[in-house]
Write a structure and sequence with these properties.
The termini are close together. With 372 residues, this protein is an alpha+beta fold. The protein folds into three domains: 118 residues, Outer membrane lipoprotein wza domain like (Outer membrane lipoprotein wza fold like); 76 residues, wza like fold, CATH 3.30.1950; 79 residues, Outer membrane lipoprotein wza fold like. Helices cover 37% and strands 23% of the residues. The chain has twelve helices and 18 strands. The strands form five sheets. A six-stranded mixed β-sheet has the order 1-16-15-18-12-13.
Length: 372
């Protein structure tokens, strides 16, 4: 009885193994014999091998040159803006120069330019000074005060600035920065604000001027040894540095550290993504099965086939191609498993089943012996 039951258990295990193996072999044979081709032919997937010809035909990346209108701009002599505080000195007339007292700070004795650009000074009346240079205002005051004073000696200084450059986004300090008589450059503004290097998208800086947006790739500028100091800022400019939380690629499958990787720069190559994920798992990965899946969501919305790029990474030379293949936000990099890995996983799933059958056979044998 014992021999019969154990033989039956062995036959059951053999049948289960054979069924799974045949199913697996049939599945493998189906894909090897062209099921993948049928999927491609059906229009669901557009499979593109990563080859030197593909990389040579890829469109060149946009040049990182700065817009000419930004580079060509040079600030003129400082022009007075609403919100500025002006200190007017009339020599030998302290009652006009320091009405708050000589011991007070210069800002206290200064006079504010109102939001409409008007400015009041005794004996000169209201003046529209917005847009004037300091020299032009001085000449205007001399002309007005000459009616009441003999040969007035007048000096004008800006002691408080209402002109601002605003900053938003992935900066450590987003405090508005003053535009003073000393021209402010883009690099100076960024240096003072300090970029949050962990969260910033360095390729996406937007400078808004006079209602127009200019996109500036800070990463490309640094790689091309260009300098943001070439750009002078104007009063009213706005700098926005986006976060990189929506700029990710996903590396999954047989790599050492599957993860989502954020872009901090303008681009990321396939080799960089694999490197940050620890590389291909030397035990479980199949080097011939490295794929980049692109545009799944957009393809579904537009009812178009998604593009899947295939890299045969079985040889070291293939990583030269991977280094030249640029990823895009939203790409999924998938590394397939080697055949032995699939076999080991199959066994790990089968062993609990064989143990269950063996336990069942033993239980039947013990129950039969009790009956005898």
């Amino acid at each position: 009885m014992n021999t019969v039951i154990r033989a039956s258990a062995i036959r059951v295990c053999a049948i289960a193994v054979s069924a799974v193996l045949l199913g697996g072999c049939a599945t493998h044979s189906m894909y090897a014999s062209g099921a993948g081709d049928q999927l491609i032919k059906s229009g669901d997937v557009n499979l593109v091998p990563i080859t030197p010809d593909l990389l040579a035909s890829a469109p060149a990346q946009a040049e990182s040159g700065l817009p000419r209108e930004l580079v060509d701009y040079r600030p003129e002599s400082y022009r007075i803006n609403p919100g500025d505080t002006l200190l007017v000195t009339v020599w030998d007339h302290p009652e006009l120069t320091t009405p708050a007292g000589t011991e007070q700070q210069a800002v206290t004795n200064g006079r504010l330019v109102k939001p409409d650009g008007s400015f009041f000074f005794p004996y000169a009346g209201n003046l529209n000074v917005a847009g004037m240079t300091v020299e032009e205002l001085r000449d205007k005051l001399v002309a007005r005060l000459s009616t009441y004073l003999r040969s007035p000696q007048v000096d004008v200084n800006v002691v408080g600035y209402g002109s601002r450059v605003t900053l938003q986004g992935a900066f450590v300090d987003t405090t508005p920065q003053q535009v003073t008589t000393v021209p402010l450059t883009l690099s100076q503004a960024i240096g003072r604000a300090r970029v949050d290097t962990e969260q910033a998208d360095l390729s996406g800086l937007v400078l808004t001027r006079d209602g127009k947006d200019y996109r500036i790739d800070l990463d490309a500028l640094s790689r091309n040894e260009s300098s943001a100091s070439e750009i002078y800022l104007k009063p009213g400019d706005r700098l926005f540095l986006p976060y990189n939380d929506r700029k990710e690629v996903y590396v999954v499958g047989e790599v050492l550290r599957p993860q989502a990787i954020t872009f901090k720069t303008s681009g990321m190559s396939l080799s960089q993504a694999l490197g940050r994920s620890g590389g291909l798992n030397p035990v479980t990965a199949k080097g011939e099965a490295v794929y980049v899946i692109r545009g799944m969501d957009m393809a579904q919305k537009q009812n178009k086939p998604a593009t899947v790029y295939h890299l045969d990474a079985s040889s070291p030379s293939s990583f030269a191609l991977a280094d030249r293949f640029s990823l895009q936000p939203g790409d999924v990099v998938w590394v397939g498993a080697a055949g032995v890995t699939r076999w080991n996983r199959f066994l790990s799933q089968l062993l609990p089943l064989s143990g269950l059958i063996s336990n069942t056979a033993s239980a039947q044998y013990n129950f039969g012996n009790r009956g005898n």
